[in-house]
Amino acid sequence: MSLVTDQHSRKYPLSGLRFLVTRQDTPESSLSILLQSQGAAVLSAAMTKIIPPESWQSFDETVKGSLKIDWAVFTSSNGVSLCVSRLKDLQIDPQFFFSKIKIACVGQSTSSALSKHGITAELIPEHFQSEGLIDAFSQYDLKNKRCWLIQAESPRKTLRLALKKQGAKIISTPVYRTVPSGKDTSFLLEELDQAKLDWIIFASPSAVQNFHQVLPDRFWESLMVKPKIACIGETTASFVKRLGWSVQLRPEIQDFEHLVKALCEQNSNIGIYP
User: Fold this and answer.
1) Half-sphere exposure of 232 (CA within 13 A, CB side)
2) Does the domain made of 62-175 have the CATH classification 3.40.50.10090?
3) Total H helices, total E strands in the chain
4) How do beta strands 169-180 and 48-51 pair?
5) Would strands 169-180 and 146-152 be described as parallel, antiparallel, or unpaired?
6) Quick one: the chain helix, strand, coil %, rounded to 5?
7) In 42, 92, 146, 251, which residue has its Cα 20 to 30 A from 2's Cα atom?
8) Kind and range of the H or E element at 113?
9) Domains 2-47+181-267 and 62-175 belong to one CATH topology
């Protein structure tokens, strides 16, 4: 657990508000810092952690195989990080390996993660989720093109099915899996019991699921009133609603900057996140 506040919070739109962030911040993408910069007090409690897949066999076979790959598709910065790490373990230079493959990715943070390794994405959808990538790919002829989906274990089937419908030949290899963080979350019960939190932010269905599992039954009904819930992505929001909770905010553009901007617009009478 970590709590971050801004000492000059009175000047900022989220002054006096207390947020629970349920994901692990990374150097490439820190939601906590964005919230803090707008005056929020931030409680960090990652519900999940990212670890390598149970087996690298399908990934290694794809990398070492003779099949020509036309597109490599990354759906998260986690996928980039684990993919690059594995290529280095195999004594393969990531930049050289991807130099003759077209790259598509979901989101600016994923694109930035690729850029740090000298890899440039050709296709980045306007809407930062799989559905946006599907729309972007509709402008390309994918018939008989090999599209390599570099994703988590047990990903959503939406992207795979849509590309296959366009005639693409799909190669799918897991490069990471999401598991419960296993960290002590007892402090959350005190926060909820004393109604200290104003907002909970979820960025993935797995975070919602793990939060639900650590939450005693007596808190379920209270979450229908307070704290408010903000989500990244329609899939995450749908998962929240299935549990009987309401989603008060989901930005149209699914990234952290637009989430924080929307929170500022909703909560501020003194200005808007630039």
Assistant:
1) 23
2) yes
3) 11, 10
4) antiparallel
5) parallel
6) 40, 20, 40
7) 251
8) helix 108-115
9) yes
Tokens 């990080």 correspond to what residue?
81
C-alpha dihedral sign at 75, 80, 83, 87: positive
CATH 2.60.40.420 fits 2-47+181-267, yes or no: no
212 burial via Cβ count (<10 Å: 0-12, 13-18, 19+): middle
pLDDT beyond 70 at 12:
yes
pTM value is: 0.77
Residue pLDDT, tens place only, 70-88:
999 998 889 999 999 999 9
Beta bridge partners, 74, equal 105, 150
Tens digit of each residue's pLDDT (9 = 90 or more) over 143-199 = 999 999 999 998 888 899 999 999 999 999 999 998 888 887 778 877 877 778 899
